[in-house]
Amino acid sequence: MELITRGERGRQWRVEQKQTIATQSSTPVHHRQRRHGIGTGQLYT
Has this prediction a pTM greater than 0.90? Predict the structure, then answer.
C-alpha cells in the first residue's frame, strides 16, 4: 500500500500517521480515506 502525500494543501503526515492508515487493511479503502480526510487519488493498495 502506498500513501501519496503532496504539499498542495500544506498538510504534513507523520510517519506514525501513515503507518496507522496503512495497517487498517481490514477496512475498505474508501472508509479509510473518509476517516482520515484523504482524497481519492492519494491512497493506493
Answer: no
